[in-house]
Target: P-type ATPase C-terminal domain-containing protein
Amino acid sequence: LSDKKAVTVAVGDGANDISMIQEANVGLGIMGKEGLQAVRSSDFAFPKFHCIARAILVHGHWYYLRASVLVQYFFYKNVVLITPQVFFTFCNGPSPQSLYTSVVYILYNTMFTAAPIIVYSLFEQDFKADTLLLNPHLYYIHRNNSLMSWGYFFRWLINGFWDSTVVYWIPAVTLYNNAVILFDDTPLEMMAFGMTVLHNIMFVVNIKLLLHSRYWSTLFISVLIISQMFFMIFMLIYNFISISSSSESILMVYSNLLMSPSFWFLTLIIIIISVIPDVLFEVFGKTAWHKLFKFPKKIFCYRLKKKTFYKVNRKQS
Model:
């Protein structure tokens, strides 16, 4: 096993199993008649042996999905935030001017976008618990660390580069051809352009997480809406108290943008274009993706001593 770099799990309920439990990558201890020695040496403890099935098939499946998306979503949303700043450096010459006001870099990860992904990583479910227990072959979906593979990671990065390109260049091209989109027929200046990009970034990253989720609970939807509204309210308040003499001042900038119908129409266009790759993958990509996995075709369920066990028939039907 060491030559194959296999990940092993050991299950034991007595003192004679301690060495095996400690040697394995993951040790599972059962509270047996021989005492709690195995439990104290294990990574996870269970009162009964049949609890292991739910721990692996249900909670193990969910935890892996949640953890993988949690890690890669943080990379994604920061790529979406920072890449427009890189694009901006090619447009503003040698100036060190930032595209966003400084407060954005402080609060983006800590307050603006933190809550939705935390709720996702705590409660996301791609299948119900009963479905996972009755269909053990679903455990094969995430075999070989598929969600943490380089291919899946680069898919998140490419998605981030696509979204950052959309949220930056569509407003840039639009304003280059017609800078007058405000309700009072005044042209946009630089900080207004930065707020336009930031406003669209918040919508895009939240909608992408919503589309990626398979468990649209009331809590999750509420947190997404509250997160978006918190950003808008915070920036609106900051818009009224921003120091006008500062080079990063957004005094009355965001409020003027929110009152412009053209600004909201531009936001709608950006959201639609940004989700095109996700829609295409859902329609065409998953068919090819699932062909990589050969799932068992039949599952036979039988009862033994009032306990339900599952036997997977790997033969093709």
